Amino acid sequence: MPTLVAFETLTELYQNLVQKYENSLKTAFAFKPAPDADYKTVTWSTVRDDVNALASYLIDFGIEKDDRVAILSENRYEWAIVDLAIQMVGAINVSLYTTLPPKQCEFILKDSEAKLFFVSTGIQLKKAVEVFDNCPDLKHVVAFDEPKVQKYMENDFVSLFDTVCVDGVKSEPKNSETIKKRALEAEPENVATLIYTSGTTGNPKGAMLTHRNIVSNVKSAHEAISIGETDRCLSFLPLCHSFERTGGYYAMMAGGAEIYYAESVDTVAKNMLEVHPTIVISVPRLFEKIYNLVMSNVKEGSAIQQSIFEWALDIGKRYWQGERGLISMQKKIADKLVFDKLKQRTGGNIRFFVSGGAALPADIGTFFMSAGLNILEGYGLTETSPVMCCNRYGEEEMGTVGKVINGVTVGIQRLEDSKIIAQLSGEDYPSDLTSEEGEILNRGPNTMKGYWKNEEATNEMIDKEGWLHTGDVGKFENGRLKITDRIKHMIVNAGGKNIYPGPIEDMFKTSPWIDQLVVVGEKRSYMAALIVPDFEAIEKYAKQNDIKYSGIEELLQNEAVQNLYNKEIRSFSKELASHEKLRDFRLIPNEFTVETGELTPTLKVKRRIIEKKYGHLIEDIFEGDQA
Fold first, then answer.
1. What single string gives the DSSP state of each residue in 440-465?
2. Which residues make beta-bridge pairs with 232?
3. What is the tens place of the pLDDT at every residue in 525-551?
4. Which domains does the chain have, with CATH numbers?
5. Which residues are CB-neighbours of 417 under 8 A, at least 6 positions away?
6. Model confidence pLDDT, tens digit, residues 396-425
7. Which DSSP category does 137 fall into?
8. Are 570 and 508 spatial neighbours (Cβ–Cβ below 8 Å)?
9. For burial by CB atoms within 10 Å, which of 406, 422, 531, 579 has the most?
10. TM segments (predicted)?
11. Cis peptide before 386 (omega within 30 of 0)
């Protein structure tokens, strides 16, 4: 489906949308002004006025073309206004995760040489105040919210967002021509944003994404997926990540879709019921939680209810896979008895979900497809703006990330001899192509310009032929890309066998007793796992079996609980090769989270951090292993 307006830069996208809707009450964005309030909608005319005011302030402040302006904020309307104003004056958006500690914020601010820093809440303002004196290029901080701790506002380098916008309105008449001139000067090859990787080791690197990088990706996404003016997207993944930036922001704007901001990641379930979105972009963690909740409820139902659910799931799967006739009639009954309730929990209007950022377990994807809730899984990296491949609506193939998007070429490079053994372009599709496994490469207009002030890291990732090396392992299966795992995640056991933990971990995500699982066993004679239980499920189990305990740690050491997990591990391991089977485990009494450092902001596991933090448990597992 083509984009709503023509554009070659992000600046042009915004300007053409404003022009299209200048005499319209069309909603652009919506947000909650307070937790108990209704959603407040914002028209494109209001967006134009707010962006012009802030752009005028940026001009007055002295922001020049290619200057860096940083944002430390959750997803909210102000984030979009700052971003669009930055594009209008030709500056570069530097976005930071709100979960970053002050020291990492300081590194990014210093590395990017940001002059101006926009922050959201008092918590984020505190970080800005703490690092301000250590950032020589940083001149001022603007806070979206008035902080509860008033001493932060006593600093002469801090202003409130509302105040600077009022100043911008006053100066807009004298700056309007300058803003127009700057906007016209935007070129596709200009850097639009620096997105710093959230790597698990070392300092983060700033990926330079140009207007061409992102615009080409947005256009290719529209060719693969239908996004239109009647769509409504619920935005909750971090906008500082390229997946949400391109997919849940620019691509939605390009189709004229409405963007509603969730109050937080924790309120997504509630906000879906309020917003009634047609499109939701998420990482697999959301789908895993919904799946486990549904399966837990089914397990607690009567034998008849469980039988009806299994029947409905079978009918839904057969219908999704193309069976019709009697199945069509049965599908209507299955919807009424089972699936309509699940659809209502997602707001009732979902056309499709988009999953990315990590691998979606095939069984969970199949469950949603069988329920009539389509999931389009895609794949890419921050450095590829980000999409390289995606499943098209009606062509979903669970366990794969779909076909290569138009304009992009994906190659498979054999690990043993670095030979490129297969490649596919979006315009060229031999549907029967199946390849050997190797490293996944990318080449095309979506490839980043490089890493900011880091030529060495750029050359390590992009070779002389222009291939960007993803570090991921995969292969083509019937013309679709299938991801195996990260090269650096590969475990080599004591016998020299290469084991990719990702697929093993994905398999266990369908267990009603397991919330998170990390495979361990480097240089050991067998594989084992660190397991975060589903605490709600295990506490229900304890109550039903009259198990007494004073705390969660005591419960996890209970013999009956240990036997329960031992049985679960053995049951799932039957599907694994001998060298992949999990022979032992340890239960972790707390969830892996972003805040405690075990997950990245996009909810990927930081293996090295977990292995270090729980090294004593790993040593306990393998005590006596003579490998």
1. EEEESTTS-SEETT-HHHHHHHB-TT
2. 258
3. 999 999 999 999 999 999 999 999 999
4. 10-228+243-263 (3.40.50.12780), 280-348+350-487 (3.40.50.12780), 490-621 (3.30.300.30)
5. none
6. 999 999 999 999 999 999 988 999 999 999
7. T
8. no
9. 531
10. none
11. yes
